[in-house]
Amino acid sequence: MASAIVLGSLSATPGAAQKIEGLAPTPPMGWNSWNHYGCNIDETLIRETADALVSSGLRDAGYVNVNLDDCWHGERDGNGNIQPDPERFPSGMKALGDYLHARGLKFGIYSDAGTQTCAGRPGSQGYEFQDARRYAEWGVDYIKYDWCNTGKGDEQRNPREAYRTMSRAIAASGRPMVLSVCEWGDNEPWLWAGQYGHLWRTTGDIINCWDCTVGHGSWSSSGILPILDQQDKLRSFGGPDKWNDPDMMEVGNLPTLAENRSHFAMWAMLAAPLIIGSDVPGMTPEITAILANKRLIAINQDPLGRGAMKWIATPDWEIWAKPLADGEWAIALLNRGDEAQSISIDWAAVELKDDTFGHRAEFAQRSYTLTDAWSGKAAGDTQTALTRKVGPRDTAVFRLRPI
Ligand code: GLA
User: Fold this and answer.
1) Residue 68 beta carbon below 6 angstroms from any ligand 1 atom
2) What does the alpha-carbon distance between residue 113 and residue 162 come to, in Å, rounded to a whole number?
3) Does one domain contain both 281 and 314?
4) Mind listing the pLDDT tens digit for each residue in 197-214?
5) Ligand 1 pocket test target in 32, 33, 34 with most atoms within 8 Å of CB
């Protein structure tokens, strides 16, 4: 395909990974069906969601990937070709892809490296090249590739082999497709998955609570804070085309606006993929405004591609700092607790250094203007100490520009 040449290039090293480079220079943005709908998806829902992404302005804000998660599948046909569930997707996947592309959206699909998906639909093990070819025919742009039913103990499939095989299958299909590695951080994917895919899950599944962990027998899911707490140590591994993925957002599914704001602010700061996981047609204006905030999105999509570091931490609140292009910074004041906090930064007395990537703010030598990222209002400069009252579970975000 011509677009393969324009958008990405294949590694020329014989035997090396065949990842198509350049498909995710900034963290992918879009929507995924799983967090809100689980298995209850069909083509009407996907089309309505696509229409709502357009009419709400979310597509134009950058949320272009429309990703079907588990349960779109029917059976394989007599030739082993995967088919969609004929009752839920009677028009077929090519028609759905065309519908999305006609609206300036991209088409994402889900499969699994095992014999079956997590919800028991046909997996891609042994069918990788056939499935990737089929997805290419349907116009798929993005594949989330899960890790259920890949065997146990010594019999388990080798994760590097599994993701490499799918990466090669995508390359062989001739269509550039983003590969989203989803093995839940079990095999330290930050050390190897960037060779094969463009993003990798760092943890088990997210769930819509602030600070809980819910067990499901052999696995558990975690709320916003427990997932956030696992990200700082991984920041050195992320960057353009190889993103740490702390899982799809629960923005819109959390009980309070403050929690939804904080979740979004911190995922933006982490340079996390921004994949909406809520009901888009039924979204309230307040949630749409959070997700469409162009200053927060610009922090997430900053071309430097650095994730934030935890800069100053107390048990109740934290300050995170994200280096941006051109010597700018974003600073987030996160109140983890249930009491309002007055958080101060005396710029003259602090040092802001990112030793991992070699960025440094020179508060003694130069001053920076502050802009409140939520409101867009000017918020002084670093000549004067900043004090901000942050409500329970809320987050204030500032962008610092050198004068
Ligand atoms: C796993 C993944 C989830 C989702 C479900 C679907 O749990 O981690 O994100 O895709 O499977 O069954």
Assistant:
1) no
2) 6
3) no
4) 999 999 999 999 999 999
5) 34
